[in-house]
Amino acid sequence: MRHPDHVARELTAWISWARRSRLHPFKRLGATLRQHFDGLVEHFRSGLSNGFVEAMNGLIQAAKARARGYRTDRNLITICYLLCAKLKHLPTNPWIPSRVQAPA
User: Fold this and answer.
1) What pTM value is reported for the model?
2) What region holds the Transposase IS204/IS1001/IS1096/IS1165 DDE domain (predicted)?
3) In sequence order, which residues have a C-beta less than 8 Å from that of residue 56 and are 6 or more positions away?
């Protein structure tokens, strides 16, 4: 993994070059990178990404599409908790209680 200070120097140099470029798309890209500069450097500092949040968002969007709307916001939030929490102790059918075996 690259050192965050090195990344910051290289990124600053590239943004400076892009702003002086005669190509409009490079100028736009340089401006966008400048706006997100702190987040880009922080990625190299922490090593984290937003992949987990994007995956949860995908689950929630799929639940919304599958149901074609919920009667209340509370119902949507409940479904989101059930889908994203990956609970293991729920019965397969909520109307039939699951049988819990005693430890041997």
Assistant:
1) 0.51
2) 4-78
3) 84
